[in-house]
Amino acid sequence: MEILAFGVQADEKPLITRAFAGHHPVHPLDVFLTNDTAPIAAGHEIISTSVNCDLGPDVLANLAAGGTRMVAQRSTGFNNVDLDVAERLGITVARVSSYSPYSVAEFAWTLAMAVNRRIVRASTRTRDFDFRLNGLMGRDLHGRTAGVLGTGKIGEAFARIAHGFGMRLLGWDVHENPACRELGMTYVPKERLLAESDLVSLHVPLLPETRHLIDATALKSMRDDAILVNSSRGGLVDTAALVDELRAGRFTGVGLDVYEAEAGLFFLDKSLEAVDDDTLARLVTFPNVLVTSHQAYYTVDAVGQIVATTLENVLDYLAGRRSENVLVPRS
């Protein structure tokens, strides 16, 4: 049985091809699943999708009409999938419950250090043989406060690095993590965390109750010289409100690996097109903002684990087994 995989990056292709070898043939596609591309899946019982694929009601109906009965999502997040519609249409949905937390935590720190020490500006200058230090002054993070919103596996990994820097740790989560407690983390209300933290990093899933977790009110409660990092989901931050605060000259730095309207932009080459997203266009003009294209997870270790789990999900579906990765069980 051939598996059709949408949204496969060039670096990911050999990993997914090797993983499925000897099991089932896989056909990797670099196009993302949308209502326009859904007809490609006709005749394929099983497809695999990435986080920026569209699995809304119309697309799911199109897939079901073409004979698709199983979607293996290659990500932990599933906010792009209408699970109720999938269940009604009899489409099994599985995801990757977890993979290397270090990939995302380390990249979040990469963003934090890059904006703190003005690495992008410094690199651009030296390429032009401009070796002045004006405007490149950063801050020691040792002794300062790191606020971690979401202290699951990735948040814990981020906190361990912060602990290594010698930072005071504040945490916020629905459930406290004993390992973070052992690092010296103090759990506090979100409002206090934002008000006291020099560095705020987001590591919570995107759910209806966490959408715009960092809204205009939250942003105004943060320190003027704070650093904000989001390597989780773009919808956690009200980007329009963030732009307003940046226009007012606030924040030492903002590092964003995700963007709430990234679908149709991220993972694609738009360099020769006019991007009509005014908010994103304004955001990337600020010298203290660094935007990357949802690459925090993109290590050979993490992607290898994602692909291996995706294969397991496919094999479980075919064998009639159910695991913790299943979001919509086989009917």
TrEMBL record:
<dbReference type="InterPro" id="IPR058205">
    <property type="entry name" value="D-LDH-like"/>
</dbReference>
<keyword id="KW-0560">Oxidoreductase</keyword>
<feature type="domain" description="D-isomer specific 2-hydroxyacid dehydrogenase NAD-binding">
    <location>
        <begin position="110"/>
        <end position="296"/>
    </location>
</feature>
<feature type="domain" description="D-isomer specific 2-hydroxyacid dehydrogenase catalytic">
    <location>
        <begin position="10"/>
        <end position="327"/>
    </location>
</feature>
<dbReference type="Pfam" id="PF00389">
    <property type="entry name" value="2-Hacid_dh"/>
</dbReference>
<dbReference type="InterPro" id="IPR029753">
    <property type="entry name" value="D-isomer_DH_CS"/>
</dbReference>
<dbReference type="InterPro" id="IPR006139">
    <property type="entry name" value="D-isomer_2_OHA_DH_cat_dom"/>
</dbReference>
<dbReference type="GO" id="GO:0008720">
    <property type="term" value="F:D-lactate dehydrogenase (NAD+) activity"/>
</dbReference>
<dbReference type="Pfam" id="PF02826">
    <property type="entry name" value="2-Hacid_dh_C"/>
</dbReference>
<protein>
    <submittedName>
        <fullName>2-hydroxyacid dehydrogenase</fullName>
        <ecNumber>1.1.1.28</ecNumber>
    </submittedName>
</protein>
<comment type="similarity">
    <text>Belongs to the D-isomer specific 2-hydroxyacid dehydrogenase family.</text>
</comment>
<dbReference type="InterPro" id="IPR006140">
    <property type="entry name" value="D-isomer_DH_NAD-bd"/>
</dbReference>
<keyword id="KW-0520">NAD</keyword>
<dbReference type="InterPro" id="IPR029752">
    <property type="entry name" value="D-isomer_DH_CS1"/>
</dbReference>
<dbReference type="InterPro" id="IPR036291">
    <property type="entry name" value="NAD(P)-bd_dom_sf"/>
</dbReference>
